[in-house]
Automatic annotation (TrEMBL):
Gene Ontology cellular component annotations, sorted alphabetically: cytoplasm
Alphabetical keyword list: Coiled coil
Name of the molecule in the record: Tumor protein D53 isoform X10
Residue segments, region Disordered: 150-191
Gene that specifies this protein: tpd52l1
Residue ranges the record marks as coiled coil: 29-63
Family designation: Belongs to the TPD52 family.
Protein source organism: Clupea harengus
Extent of Polar residues compositional bias: 169-185
Length: 191
């Protein structure tokens, strides 16, 4: 074991002190018997006053409830009134007003953006429909439909063939009209 050190660092544990003895010593040294009696009397008076106040409060709460019932004020109606009051207070707040204005502005801008987008798409479709490629495609489709109608119509009078033959001949005719076939034919021909 280490030798005992002197000064601030004691190596032995502190002795436990009896709490009852400490409280008695503190009370006995600071409060006299006369003061103790006065405090006890004051404590009794305060407890009586508290009891009386509780009784008065209970009777006032009962009367309050009776008056509400006679007036037809129910807890649900009170809740509605509180909600309406809170809603009104919130709507009159500056934060609500600013948020509402911001959302209104955002909604208007979004609506304008969608309107612009719709008109842009319509304009693009119009441009596409007026383009040379679309017109060429439209003309080929019209001629193919006309050919099919003609051949099916003459088929009923004899010599036109059945519907399947008309479709295959129309498919052959339209494949010969495509630019890729014309391109390959021109490259295959001798110059």
């Amino acid at each position: 074991m280490e030798p005992r050190q002197q000064g601030l660092l004691e190596t032995e544990p502190l002795q436990e002190v009896d709490e009852d003895m400490v409280s008695e010593v503190d009370l006995n040294s600071s409060v006299t018997d006369e003061e103790r009696e006065e405090m006890n009397n004051e404590l009794v008076k305060l407890e009586e006053e508290i009891s009386t106040l509780r009784q008065v409060l209970d009777s006032k709460e009962k009367r309050h409830l009776e008056l509400k019932l006679k007036l037809g004020i129910t807890p649900l109606s009170e809740l509605r009134q509180n909600f309406n009051r809170s809603w009104t207070d919130m709507q009159s707040s500056t934060v609500y007003k600013k948020t509402s204005e911001t959302l209104t502005t955002a909604g208007q801008k979004t609506s304008a953006a969608f309107t612009n987008l719709g008109s842009s798409i319509s304009r693009r479709f119009g441009d596409m429909r007026n383009s040379q490629s679309f017109r060429s495609f439209e003309e080929k489709m019209e001629s193919t439909v006309t050919t099919i109608k003609t051949k099916v119509g003459t088929g009923a009078g004899g010599g036109g063939g059945n519907f399947e033959e008309v479709l295959s001949s129309a498919a052959n005719a339209s494949s010969q009209d495509t630019p890729t076939n014309n391109l390959t034919e021109s490259t295959e021909r001798p110059c």
